């Protein structure tokens, strides 16, 4: 059965299966969100840190860039934050940067506009505009545009996967597949069951958005390297989505042992952890 067919399941089951908060206690959740901020603060002390680089003045959007070095073009990891498309920000999202900088890798964390103020169409456009800005300004920013890896958690995992889809790059002056590799974490890859759940209360997905922005329906163009990640402790829908996408793209689905939906991304920031090593492998090619 396809993930899209879940849209016909009872609303109560979908609400339960797609409530990420149920993967941990309230105390763990609050502690983890606080840690996003405190761990991200350390990135501000990295040499050459640049914050609020504007990529869309009209929308008031910027990104933070860490770990570059004058005179070098470094590989780049882009981390896209989660929050079910309605919460969090780039201020919560720079905790990968210190580990990556120690390995000679830059890290960028973009903002995007949040629901319910905007629609999914706008959120995806913001993410793609941020990517296009970094690709076109690569030399000025100290980025090797041929070694860009995208990752993100939950809603950010979904947005990372939408960057791999085809059909949008030419309008922004990009090659068919400008991304070298991707590592979506606890992502959502078909929006149909999400639109049949409580998430629809704030997202108001249209049928056109469900079709256009479901990565399972638009598999990556080209041959980017891919690894999919899910936490051991996830709401069931997130496991099903990650496993289905991994199968569809022919990529491994790594499980973050003893982690829940919100803290699994901390393992990507540990160069000695299997998930951290996998991220570095994707960067190195």
Structural write-up:
- This protein has helices at 11-17, 26-41, 97-102, 120-136, 138-141, 155-164, 192-195, 200-203, 207-212, 236-249, 274-284, and strands at 50-56, 61-66, 74-80, 106-110, 143-153, 181-185, 225-226, 228-233, 253-260.
- With 285 residues, it is of the alpha/beta class.
- The protein has one domain: Rossmann fold (3-Layer(aba) Sandwich).
- Strands 1-2-4-3-5-6-7 form a 7-stranded mixed beta sheet, with helices on both faces.
- Strand 1 and strand 2 form a beta hairpin.
- Helix 4 (120-136) crosses helix 6.
- The longest helix has 17 residues, at 120-136.
- 50% of the residues are buried.
SSE blueprint and pairings:
Blueprint: H1 11-17, H2 26-41, E1 50-56, E2 61-66, E3 74-80, H3 97-102, E4 106-110, H4 120-136, H5 138-141, E5 143-153, H6 155-164, E6 181-185, H7 192-195, H8 200-203, H9 207-212, E7 225-226, E8 228-233, H10 236-249, E9 253-260, H11 274-284
Helix pairs in contact: 4-6
Gyration radius, in Å: 17 Å
How many E strands?
Answer: 9
3D shape: globular
How confident overall, as mean pLDDT?
97
Q: For the record, give the distance between the C-alpha atoms at the N and C termini, rounded to a whole number.
A: 34 Å
Under CATH, the topology can be stated as Rossmann fold
User: Roughly what percent helix?
Assistant: 25-40%
Q: How many structural units, i.e. domains? A: 1
């Amino acid at each position: 059965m396809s993930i899209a067919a879940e849209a016909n399941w009872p609303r109560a089951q979908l609400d339960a299966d797609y409530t990420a908060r149920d993967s941990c206690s309230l105390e763990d959740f609050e502690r983890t969100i606080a840690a996003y901020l405190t761990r991200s603060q350390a990135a501000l002390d990295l040499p050459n840190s640049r914050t609020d680089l504007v990529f869309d003045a009209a929308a008031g959007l910027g990104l933070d860039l860490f770990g570059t070095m004058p005179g070098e073009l470094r590989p780049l990891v882009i981390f896209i934050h989660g929050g079910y498309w309605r919460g969090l920000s780039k201020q919560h999202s720079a905790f990968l940067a210190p580990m990556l900088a120690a390995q000679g890798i830059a890290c960028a964390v973009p903002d995007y506009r949040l629901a319910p103020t905007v629609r999914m169409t706008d959120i995806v456009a913001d993410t793609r505009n941020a990517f296009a800005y970094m690709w076109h300004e690569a030399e000025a920013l100290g980025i090797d545009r041929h070694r860009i890896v995208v990752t993100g958690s939950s809603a950010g995992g979904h947005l990372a996967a939408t960057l791999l889809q085809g059909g949008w790059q030419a309008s922004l002056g990009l090659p068919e597949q400008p991304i070298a590799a991707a590592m979506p974490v606890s992502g959502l890859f078909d929006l149909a069951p999400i639109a049949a759940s409580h998430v629809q209360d704030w997202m108001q997905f249209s049928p056109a958005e469900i079709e256009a922005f479901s990565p399972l329906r638009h598999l990556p163009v080209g041959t980017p390297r891919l690894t999919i990640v899910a936490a051991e402790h996830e709401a069931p829908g997130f496991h099903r989505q990650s496993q289905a996408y991994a199968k569809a793209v022919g990529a491994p689905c790594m499980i973050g042992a003893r982690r829940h939906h919100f803290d699994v991304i901390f393992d990507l920031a540990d160069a000695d952890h299997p998930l951290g090593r996998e991220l570095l492998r994707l960067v190195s090619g």
